[in-house]
Amino acid sequence: MEPFPQNPQTSPVNQRRKWSTKEDVVLISAWLNTSKDAIVGTDQKAGAFWKRIVDYVNASPQLSGGVPREWSQCKQRWGRINEQVCKFVGCYEAAVREQASGQNENDVMKAAHDIFFNDIGIKFTLEHCWRELRFDQKWKSLGVPKEGPKEKRKEAAEVVAEEEGAEVRPPGVKACKAAKRKRQGYDEIHAMLAVKKEIQQQKLLERLLAKDPTHLTASEITLMEKLISEMI
Fold this sequence. Notes:
Radius of gyration: 37 Å
Strand content: under 5%
Order of helices and strands: HHHHHHHHH
Shape: rod-shaped
Number of strands: 0
Mean pLDDT: 76
Structural class: mainly alpha
Helix content: 55-70%
């Protein structure tokens, strides 16, 4: 196994110094870029792989002026990030599945932290790392609840379709039949009301025609003429 490069500027004290949020983000970026490099990949020797990562971290303009890290520090820190983020992904997905109506993303995050603490026994302090990795295939979390209320899932799917410019799937056969039956019911009601109104008008006209024309009032004559014109 080839020897790992050592940085003479790094002392044992520096090796134990705390990692900042900015350093974590740069380390994650370095690991993702190096592991997905089509030429290098993760099949390269460990020494070369972590040398590329530590070089990426120490050359980052975001960490300019800081004390350089060694490969062993990057490897140890990455191991901790990977382990805890993987566990939190499971906690977050559990929180999403248990999401109640009316709860928002903040409620889900709080529930995920509570689940992590109850299951692991420590607080999850690497949320910034999870947010950097959550959409990568390995750590990808659920986008919408898989077992939440049906209406909530339906609304979420429709929003995604609209945002992506996708066509919304047309209603199924059952939905079409139900809508057709509903329309037919309305049509039948309207037809019945129309027939009932016509019968009432016929009876009224018959009563008016049965009267002596000389005894009809002006309003009755007007109504009779109107009814006759509508029925002709």
